[in-house]
Every structure is written in structure tokens, then in C-alpha cells.
Amino acid sequence: MPVSQMVLIILAGVGAGAVNSLVGSGTLITFPTLVTLGFAPLTATISNSIGLVAGGVSGTWAYRRELRGQRDRLRWQVPGSVIGAVCGAYLLLHLPESVFNRVVPVLLIAALVLVVIGPRIQTIAQRRAEQAGRSVDHLGRGRMAALTLGTFAVAVYGGYFSAAQGILLIGVMGVLLPESMLR
Fold first, then answer.
1. Rounded to an integer, what distance in angstroms lies between the CA atom of residue 11 and that of residue 51?
2. What DSSP state is assigned to residue 177?
3. DSSP state of 95
4. A GO CC term (predicted)?
5. Terminus of the chain with fewer CB atoms < 10 Å: N or C?
């Protein structure tokens, strides 16, 4: 690999990391960069997913205060997320690569649309949270089931193609949870 391509990948990675720390969706920088440089789309998405692990762990650590008091919810969301991610990864690795190559343009367009409307989703969700007079610590069974299923569905998407997964999850949680966006 030429040094110029390595430099471009590093710059894309740093740029994506900066975008992820602010609004998410850095994969929309790195994925097209890798594909443009000749990497197979499947290789590019797997590389992106592996690269997101460190950011997810450090983000969880950084927001650990906001996670306090959410043990009951996380007890359901984490398994839903892990099982969904495993299902998405299974699909990624077992469906023919031709399916992925046909689906990726649609997923990229959907991810770009989500990035554009993401701030609007966040504003609506925040307004709902402010208007809801319910306790943030209690969710009924129906809402908890919907939250778990929504988390599972987003995780399947993320296990298959990770771009804009965070925006999808914020949308699901924003609709179902009467809390601030930060929490």
C-alpha cells in the first residue's frame, strides 16, 4: 500500500473520530474512503466496526455518571443490543457479498438522511422528554419491551452496517424515554 493511501486512511480515521465525538456518523467518512481506495465494501465495514469499539468503550466510561440509576433498563437493553449485533454480524458474514454490495448504497443513503434529520429527531425527542411528567426511573412493561425490541433492531442494523447506528438508537430512545438527550 502506498504511503499516500496510508496517510489518507489515517486522516479519514482522525476526521471520523472527531465527527463521532461531536455528532456521530464518522463511518460516513471512513467507509467511502476505504471503498474508494479499493477495499471491498465488506472489508471496509468490518474495519469500521472494529474501529468503533474503542470509541464505544471510552464513551461509556466518559458518560458513566449519566448511566447511574439506569441498571434496570440496561439489564434489558444490553442483552438486546448484544444479541442484535450478533445477528447482524451473522447476516454480514453469511449472506453473499453480492447482497451486501447491493444493500450498501441504500444503507448509505439512509444513513446520510438520518445524519441530516438527526438534529431534528434529537430536538423532538428532547421536547417530548421535557413535556413528559413521568418518572425517568420507571418504565412500564410495554415501553420496556418496545425499547428492548427497538434496541435489538438497531443492533441488527449496526452488526450488519454500522453507519449512523447511534442516530438510529437516539431516535428509538428519544421516542420511548422521557429523559434528556444527554442522559
1. 14
2. -
3. S
4. plasma membrane
5. N
| Residue of 81, 94, 102 lying closest to 157 (CA atoms) | 81
**Residue 151 and residue 170 in contact, taking contact as beta carbons nearer than 8 Å:** no
d(CA 110, CA 154): 13
The one-letter amino acid at 100: F
Residues contacting 177, CB < 8 A, separation 6+: 129, 136, 139, 147
Q: Name every residue whose Cβ is closer than 8 Å to that of residue 123 and which is 6 or more positions away in sequence.
A: none
> CA-to-CA distance for 167 and 158, rounded, in angstroms?
11
Quote the radius of gyration of the chain (alpha carbons, Å).
17
| % of the chain exceeding 70 in pLDDT | 84
Spatial contact of 40 and 19, defined as CB atoms under 8 Å apart: no
- Whole-Å CA distances, 115 to 23, 30, 55, 122, 159: 9, 15, 19, 11, 19
Cα(first)–Cα(last) distance of the chain, in Å? 43
Residue 44 has pLDDT above 80, yes or no: yes
**What pTM, to 2 d.p., does this model score?**
0.73
The rounded distance, in Å, linking the Cα atoms of 176 and 171 is 9
